[in-house]
Amino acid sequence: MKTLLVAEFREGKLRAEYSQLIAFAQQQQAEAAMFLVGSAGEVPKFNGTLYLADAAKYGEYNPTVHKQLLLDVIAKEQPAQIVFLHSSYGWDLAPRVAVALQAAQVSEVVSVDNGLPVVPVCNAKLRRTIKAITAQTVLTIQAGAFGMEAEPEGTPTVVEIDTGAAGKVQCTGYEAAKIEGVDLTKAEIIVSAGRGVGKPENVAMVQALAKALGGEYGASRPVVDAGWVEHNRQVGTTGSTVTPKLYVACGISGAIQHLAGMKKSDFIVAINTDRDAPIGEVANVLVVADLKQFLPVLTEKLGAR
Amino acid sequence: MNILICIKQVPDMESKFKINGEGTWYDRADLAWRMNEYDEYAVEQAVRLKEQVKDADLTVLCIGPDQVTEAIKKALAMGCDRGVHITDPYSAKREPIAIATMIAGFAKGKNFDVIFTGMQSQDRGSAQVGVMVAELLGIPAVTTIVGFAYDNGTIQVKRELEGGSKALVTATTPVVLTCQLGLNTPRYPTLPNIMKAKKKELLPLAPDVGGLGPRQETTACAFPEKKGGGLVLEGEIPELADKLIQLLKEKTTVLA
Fold it and tell me: CATH number for the domain including A146?
């Protein structure tokens, strides 16, 4: 199947996640070409055609222009599927292309089952299998769902592309992530609070357990958004990606964005009242209990050791 | 200013889900319903914009069966001026382009300066509808905003990127903005505002997707297969704590 892969470029750098697009194409045994608005100085390692536009000229985030560049390549290549990462770049650009092509779009593909894409719904509690009935399909694939066994290699045949399209919005720069204070990526033990803590006062239970274990405390996104825990302690896609020896998830259901930030921890303990919570998929031990009752007892017993 | 906010009603994600009889979606029975969390940020930002510019009219639109008027009423109680309910008992079967077509059909010709919506819904999570509305209307869209400032027709937003950095983006009206969690702190409706909301206009409209045909279908909806052999501990709290400490001693080095 002819497939066009859409690689990404940000703050002057090629995003390494392009290898996941290649992994997806290889799994489908697809005939792949690649598209990138980036720089000739840093091209993906890939054996195939790379349609390359210059980010210095067309911008790194300039959706209307990137869409037109992409549509021109699609008109030439006639791919059966156009594959993006399900990322801030991909989920922004993919629907624009799908509307223009009048193509089905399937978001956040985690696997392919008998040729049909499978996507998570309801906070990853359920999975839907979707059949596109248009000639072309636009897909975004979930970060980390498709991985290569080896580093990508090869040298693409570069085809430079241009457009006269004008942008509608202007990206004026970037604001760096705040990294002052604690650095969770260096912690060996992390105890994290999720929405299940219920109220801000209960974060203290999580802090107490972290202290008893000699580790740091962290949190999932909803807890940080609510202002109960500071942002530099957020674990997940938009926070820190951590790999401690022990990760204890307290009242965290296990949204994909959180799992992506902690699933490579050496040993994972989840404490949750719902034994079907998605966090159970990555946990070595799932303690089915109300953390408000369980944490104080556990902390006391650890202290009395 | 003329502002549209598009919201969805979704089940509480902590609910126990069951698969429906057709095996294509969740069963709607016995679920607690609420406004899609991402849309709460959209409503709040619109209300704040009205508080800033004073002269603004906020229309909140929701598609779905009769019960979604509860979500519309919450948005009205938060400060929206009027509600539009596209009464569609089949909304859960509609694909994103169909939902976007209905919204764009309503918005066309009404000269909305800003259309706010959530960056995705908590149940479907396609992150497609907002962008598609903009494309159908031929106006710009900026997705995943976590910062917003308005000054005399110019809008400055921050887009959230992977790893916690942000892109600074400038746009002019008209524009569609899709809101990410953490953009603001959505207010709780006060009792007087809940009472006032009952008197606000709530216009029912029939669903209209024009001549749009299907582009995709759901062949199955199911619980994910449990993978990995994680140990599940259940029982009395003190015993659970003892068992966990024992496991940590055996399987990790952190209690050494």
Answer: 3.40.50.620
**What are the Cα distances from residue B12, in Å, to A220, B8, B35?**
18, 12, 9
Which structural domain range is residue A270 located in?
Answer: 184-303
**Which positions in chain A touch B181 (Cβ < 8 Å)?**
221-222, 225
Do A95 and A216 fall into the same domain? no
Nearest-CA distance B184 → chain A (Å): 9
Calculated CA dihedral for residues B153, B156, B160, B163, nearest 10 degrees: 170
Q: Lowest mean pLDDT of A38-47, A276-285, B118-127, name the range.
A: A276-285
Q: What residues have CB less than 8 Å from B185, skipping those under 6 apart?
A: A227, B44
The answer to whether residues A146 and A48 belong to one domain is yes
Tokens of A252: 């965290």
Structural domain boundaries, residue B58: 2-205
Q: Which residues of A touch B149 (CB under 8 A)?
A: none
Is residue A21 one of the residues assigned to a domain?
yes
pLDDT at A182 over 90: no
Q: Contact B237/A126, CB-based, under 8 Å?
A: no
Where residue A179 falls among pLDDT bands split at 50, 70, 90?
A: low
- Indicate the residue type of A261: G
